[in-house]
Amino acid sequence: MYERPKVCIGSAIVDIEVLSTEETKESKKGEISYFPAEIKQRAGGVARNHAEALARLGIDVDLISAFGIDLNGDKDIGATFLFKKWEGLENLDFSHSLFTKECSTATSVSIESKKGLQQGFINVEVLLNKIDCKFIDDNANLIKLADYVVIDANFPPSVIERVLYWANRSETKSWYLFD
Predict the structure, then answer these.
(1) Bridge partners, 113 (sequence order)
(2) Is 178 exposed, middle or buried (0-12, 13-18, 19+ CB in 10 A)?
(3) 38-70: b or e for each residue (b if 16 or more CB lie within 10 Å)?
(4) CA–CA dist 106, 122 (Å, integer)
(5) Domains in the chain, ordered, with CATH?
(6) Domain named Carbohydrate kinase PfkB: which ranges (predicted)?
(7) What is the rounded CA–CA span in Å between residue 52 and residue 116?
């Protein structure tokens, strides 16, 4: 029996976490202070996380996301950080994703002290806005042939509506992910 693939549409993010290893002190005005820290880099993003999990369960999955053509997203460098996480996952196809030189791969940086989260920064919105209704229309066959589609709710409403339009026309089940 032919099993229809799953489609995950949404963010793929490089998460950088800075964990202070000692108490931090407030800097004097105009000064920069440096503190010992543990810095971790992880693969993240709502749709990317779900696509990887499904693929690791042996399920065929197509990921529609957006990547900047930079050190974290150059599709011609097979060992870049996000793609390296998928090595050996033959059933995860991200070839339908958008690759653009106009902005960098989505990245989040969190800075935590012994007291907890101090600051968080993210640049995902500019990149996700590159996936517009036309891009969804160009990939409509993936949605129409899918068993179900997982949608990252961080998209503009018009894009979510367009995904649902194609899913409803073909009776593809849909699941929304709110972050």
Answers:
(1) 116
(2) exposed
(3) eeeeebbbbbbbbbbebbeeeebbbbbbbbbbb
(4) 7
(5) 6-22+35-173 (3.40.1190.20)
(6) 7-160
(7) 29
In this structure, what token pair is assigned to residue 157? 């409403």
Kindly report the number of other CB atoms within 10 A of residue 89's CB atom. 16
Place of tokens 């969804």: 136
Integer Cα distance of 153 and 70 in angstroms: 25
Q: CA 161 from chain center: how many Å?
A: 20
**For 66-95, how does the pLDDT look when each residue is reduced to its tens digit (9 = 90+)?**
988 776 656 554 336 677 777 788 899 999
For the sheet with 13-20, list strands across it. Answer: 37-44, 13-20, 107-113, 116-122
How does DSSP classify residue 22?
Answer: S
- Residue type for 81, please? F
* pTM, two decimal places: 0.83
Give the E-state strand segments of 45-147 in sequence order.
Answer: 61-64, 66-68, 92-93, 98-100, 107-113, 116-122
